[in-house]
Every structure is written in structure tokens, then in C-alpha cells.
Amino acid sequence: xxxxxxxxxxxxxxxxxxxxxxxxxxxxxxxxxxxxxxxxxxxxxxxxxxxxxxxxxxxxxxxxxxxxxxxxxxxxxxxxxxxxxxxxxxxxxxxxxxxxxxxxxxxxxxxxxxxxxxxxxxxxxxxxxxxxxxxxxxxxxxxxxxxxxxxxxxxxxxxxxxxxxxxxxxxxxxxxxxxxxxxxxxxxxxxxxxxxxxxxxxxxxxxxxxxxxxxxxxxxxxxxxxxxxxxxxxxxxxxxxxxxxxxxxxxxxxxxxxx
Length: 259
Description:
Elements: E1 4-8, H1 15-18, E2 25-29, E3 32-39, E4 42-48, H2 53-65, E5 71-80, E6 90-98, E7 119-121, H3 124-142, H4 151-156, E8 165-172, H5 180-189, E9 193-197, H6 200-210, E10 214-222, H7 232-257
Parallel strand pairs: 1-4, 1-5, 5-10, 6-8, 8-9
Antiparallel strand pairs: 2-3, 3-4, 5-9, 6-7, 6-10
Helix pairs in contact: 2-6, 3-7
């Protein structure tokens, strides 16, 4: 694989990976710190995008123009929307859509003007590799053999079930969805949506423009309603960041083995 970008909205989600770069070099561009080095033999760039669609688009454009990455992975947390998507699960995106895009009546609601589409797909091969890696991590957690995360830590964050990996649509917008009416409206508009967050669809659109493959994984931190997780920062530190670290390492390890 050519140079791989690994992007998260928050520092905590990349901290474990950054600590493993033996030859890390920090390059500052557009108010961001891009950490360039090698991770388990793979040339990578790690960067915090900051929060929101514009921030994600800026970050993706710099990665593609200045760092000339060959693929992007975005990882972080999201609110669950799918009926079977629960806190502690992982969603790997098949496609992404901006749920707050509305240029009607000139263009259909949700369609990105002049693109003729509302959904931007992820790369099938890269997403499948990421899905397999995530499933391996969750199997290791369930068997209590995951070095990064134990079942006790997971249960301490309110996850009592055996977490699962889901595939499907992720919707993005520039607001934090945290009420039952908002979540219900998203389900009505996008019946197949599995999760909601604030960056992925913008990054996917930029990758579409550059014809560069991308994949998105999201750890479910809440149900995007009035029962939202009460300790968001702890969940990122104790669960989401550990999922990210373990899944990326597992994916790169499988790549070395030719799987």
C-alpha cells in the first residue's frame, strides 16, 4: 500500500498509534500537526482533523495535495442510529451522506449541488480490510485476549453486550445529534443509516474529487438521543481510542501477510 493517512477528529483517538511511530516527524500545515513515519512497516501520516465537515475537508485536501497519500482512513466515535447498533459496536461505512445538505428546491434535498448525488461511497477493498480487522479486535475483546482493551474496561464504560461490527450508511452534519426527536428524524429520512457523526461525508467527498480510496470506522459512543453516554471523554480514552489502535495494527498486520 502507498502512503496511508489515518485521521481522527480528536487527539485521544490517535495517541496510541502516534506513540508507535519510531521515526515520527511533525510537519505543520493549515493549523494542524501531521505526523509522518512508519507504523508496522507501513508509511503513514497521522493527523487530527478537528471537528466538523469543513475541518475534515481541509485536512483531507492537505493530505492529498501536500502529502500525496494513496488512501485515507477516518476513525472516531459516532451516535448509533440503526436498530441493532449499540454502544460499544463499530460501524464501517459503505457510503456517507450530509444529512444537513439542503439546496432545495433547486436541487433535491440531500443532493450535493452539481454532483448529481447525495451519497459518496467508500473503497470496497479498504473497507473490507478494515471490517475484518475490527471483527478480529472485537473477537479478541470477547475472549479477553485483546492487549489494548479488556472486557472489564468495556463493561466499566457501560458496554454489557458482546460488541459487533456493522456495515452501512453513515450520515454527517454540523451539529451534535443528542435528542430523541433529532435521531428519529434522521431515521425517517435515511432508513438505512447506521450512525451519525460530523466529518465523514465531507472527507469522502474530497476523496471522490481526488479519486483516492477512503474508509471510515466509527465506534458507537451513544444512541444519538436523550440517553447519550454521560462520560464522553472517558469512552474515547478507554474504548474508542483502543479500538482504533488495535484495528489499525490488525489491518496492517494482515496486509503484511498478504490477506
